[in-house]
Design a protein that fits this description.
single chain; alpha+beta; Sortase, Chain: A
Length: about 260
């Protein structure tokens, strides 16, 4: 009887090992292929430059030409109405649409632009922020994927040289381009910034900015030469930090120009 129980137990352990191995392989495959749909998307929504029309006699006062938007937002909107902007950070792999769900702030945590449930989710904001980037602090979320996709390469800012040499962020919208300058990159706790600080209060926002510039952690890089105040509009990019649930890695930038 004991011998039979031993065989049964052995069989159960083998079965569990096979199941665990299968789950591990499946998770690895999902991680490896995470974000592939976005790579294809980048090619399909790159806007073609407008063909030049024959020159005509111009009036005395020529209106300034509108800025050329390199993203086909019409195609993106057909794919998903929740797309409202595109983020690009030269020097990194960050080159993605930004989405916001009107009702479910957690939806794009694990859903792609196609509405498919996937571990990489999307790059997104919550409805605590407007879609105009006119809040004191617009927080954009993205996963830290092991294959380098989504917000993984934000961690490159842990290197001082990289931080110094890659400071620009571009936000494309259907009618304008917003340029931001990175001033801070550091590990923070997992508190919800927009719910824990009343940043619409000028004094609170100024104190929040002062606290950033007073960070002295070894793994933080802050450009103390930049003048950022309560009248500015900042961008916070938030991603996971080494799988530590209580921490987030933040890269923050200030709006320096808007081109229409």
């Amino acid at each position: 009887m004991k011998k039979q129980q031993k065989y049964i137990l052995g069989g159960v352990l083998v079965l569990l090992a096979v199941i665990c191995a299968g789950v591990g392989i499946s998770h690895f495959a999902r991680e490896k292929n995470a974000g592939k749909e976005y790579e294809e998307l980048k090619e399909t929504v790159a806007a073609e430059p407008e063909a030049e029309e024959p020159e005509e006699e111009l009036p005395e006062e020529e209106p300034e030409p509108k800025v050329e938007i390199p993203i086909d937002f019409a195609a993106l909107k057909e794919q998903n109405e929740d797309v409202y902007a595109w983020i690009r950070i030269p020097g990194t792999n960050v080159d993605y649409p930004i989405l916001q769900h009107d009702e479910d702030n957690g939806y794009y945590l694990n859903h792609t632009i196609d509405g498919v449930e996937a571990i990489e989710g999307s790059i997104y904001t919550e409805n605590y922020n407007s879609k105009e980037f006119d809040d004191p602090n617009t927080v954009i979320y993205g996963h830290n994927m092991k294959n380098g996709s989504m917000f993984r390469t934000l961690h490159n800012y842990e290197d001082r040289t990289f931080f110094d040499e890659n400071r620009d962020i571009f936000i494309y919208m259907p009618d304008r381009i917003l340029e931001y300058r990175i001033f801070a990159a550091y590990v923070y706790d997992n508190r919800h910034l927009l719910l824990n600080y009343d940043l619409e209060d000028t004094a609170v926002f100024q104190q929040y900015i002062d606290d950033i510039f007073n960070i002295r952690a070894m793994n933080a890089y802050i450009d103390a030469s930049m003048n950022v105040g309560a009248d500015d509009r900042i961008l916070t990019l938030s991603t996971c930090n080494a799988g530590i649930e209580t921490q987030r890695y933040l890269v923050q930038a200030v709006l320096i120009s808007i081109d229409y």
